[in-house]
């Protein structure tokens, strides 16, 4: 009808959009081609800035074009007057700001802005700081902007106190500002270092920080940002490096060293073995032979340790950080000894202190009371429960004061956070093992962990000296960490959930193994033990593999050293 605007149909609209896209694509491709041609010809001029600018204004993530622009500006710095370059770079900053409005998290744009500010004759750092604040108001989690802001702060020489004040302002505005909490954790050790632990923070400052974070967690107990910061405030004590144990065996011609902290031998760290004061050559290796960090290091000797006379063995650790600080430990092997060892003394509760808090007990106890108060209001809040658990573990290093409360805390976490049930059960296993190892005789050769509800094994390096261990009636699904038990001879793993025995191939002295009632499906699951030459007895009763009548024949064929399978004497395997 006359006088009325014609409304396009859906089909017409789609066709119009298609044509518009095609037009833009042609222009985009033509511009890209022209930019590449100019770069190829070495034409570093304003036209190059114009062509690349038209494309980057639409697509700020075209890294090649940002590199071309850098090359143009490098050319300008070499060939143009300072005032002219200043003006061009100021215009570039305005252009970059428009690109950031298209994509505030564009790597290329932020990197190019850094390049411009580093090379600008007269940079305005105050303006850049304000720009960062503006973009952080848009999105407080923009880590690109946070990274750029740290660069600006460094170049502008903004004081750390001012930066700490900035984080306080951002946190006050929004307790959920994780980036500000994180930045705060980086600033405090620099502003208020603890004289006794330079990487940590003064105790009076920590107390004030607890007050700040308490306001956040009591306001919104479900917000994880403040809880993560709270966990950081609890700290992690750092154990002093030392040689915890040396074990020497005449039979295996092997020296084993246990350290308090993991290192990688050969990457700056050195372990020097001496016998009778003479340095012994050879390669140190981890229990599994991997090239990785480890607290356990083993050296196989090319020659036997002399028999029928006393032998002195010493090991010296030279760390990579401080070559002047060396740690040495030695032992004597008597003439009639097949093996000898020396285990360092540890103050009660200090063996696992690297996993506990570095803050003082009084501070932690005060904080625990506050969190318990919150628990009364939020009994099923997982963050409250996790923090209570961490605090009680930190305060009660011998696991004697809060033993029952810690167990109850973990059990409640399993109920309220079912998605992480396996994690909490493993955490409970870790707690149980720490409790047992803290009270275990350091020179013990046997251990029973039967019926303890273990789902995972931790701290097995501290079981180095064990010759016998009972792990039956648990819920273990892997035994990889048993590779640390270098002296192990007798092992019971009955009634667990094992589908393989990976890890046991490194227990070279293992002679008796019981894995009854597990989930081993075939004789092939035992092939991993074919090189365990000392293994003479194995019991696999109650495993799915027993449904095959010839399972004992297959096992014997692949583990020739066996004399008994399922409590029955072995006959020689058919060739």
UniProtKB/TrEMBL annotation:
<comment type="similarity">
    <text>Belongs to the protein prenyltransferase subunit alpha family.</text>
</comment>
<comment type="function">
    <text>Catalyzes the transfer of a geranylgeranyl moiety from geranylgeranyl diphosphate to both cysteines of Rab proteins with the C-terminal sequence -XXCC, -XCXC and -CCXX, such as RAB1A, RAB3A, RAB5A and RAB7A.</text>
</comment>
<comment type="function">
    <text>Catalyzes the transfer of a geranyl-geranyl moiety from geranyl-geranyl pyrophosphate to cysteines occuring in specific C-terminal amino acid sequences.</text>
</comment>
<dbReference type="InterPro" id="IPR009087">
    <property type="entry name" value="RabGGT_asu_insert-domain"/>
</dbReference>
<protein>
    <recommendedName>
        <fullName>Geranylgeranyl transferase type-2 subunit alpha</fullName>
        <ecNumber>2.5.1.60</ecNumber>
    </recommendedName>
</protein>
<dbReference type="InterPro" id="IPR032675">
    <property type="entry name" value="LRR_dom_sf"/>
</dbReference>
<keyword id="KW-0597">Phosphoprotein</keyword>
<dbReference type="InterPro" id="IPR001611">
    <property type="entry name" value="Leu-rich_rpt"/>
</dbReference>
<dbReference type="GO" id="GO:0097354">
    <property type="term" value="P:prenylation"/>
</dbReference>
<keyword id="KW-0433">Leucine-rich repeat</keyword>
<keyword id="KW-0637">Prenyltransferase</keyword>
<dbReference type="GO" id="GO:0005968">
    <property type="term" value="C:Rab-protein geranylgeranyltransferase complex"/>
</dbReference>
<dbReference type="InterPro" id="IPR002088">
    <property type="entry name" value="Prenyl_trans_a"/>
</dbReference>
<dbReference type="Pfam" id="PF07711">
    <property type="entry name" value="RabGGT_insert"/>
</dbReference>
<keyword id="KW-0677">Repeat</keyword>
<dbReference type="GO" id="GO:0004663">
    <property type="term" value="F:Rab geranylgeranyltransferase activity"/>
</dbReference>
<dbReference type="Pfam" id="PF01239">
    <property type="entry name" value="PPTA"/>
</dbReference>
<feature type="region of interest" description="Disordered">
    <location>
        <begin position="1"/>
        <end position="23"/>
    </location>
</feature>
<feature type="domain" description="Rab geranylgeranyltransferase alpha subunit insert-domain">
    <location>
        <begin position="243"/>
        <end position="308"/>
    </location>
</feature>
<dbReference type="GO" id="GO:0008270">
    <property type="term" value="F:zinc ion binding"/>
</dbReference>
<feature type="compositionally biased region" description="Basic and acidic residues">
    <location>
        <begin position="14"/>
        <end position="23"/>
    </location>
</feature>
<dbReference type="InterPro" id="IPR036254">
    <property type="entry name" value="RabGGT_asu_insert-dom_sf"/>
</dbReference>
<keyword id="KW-0808">Transferase</keyword>
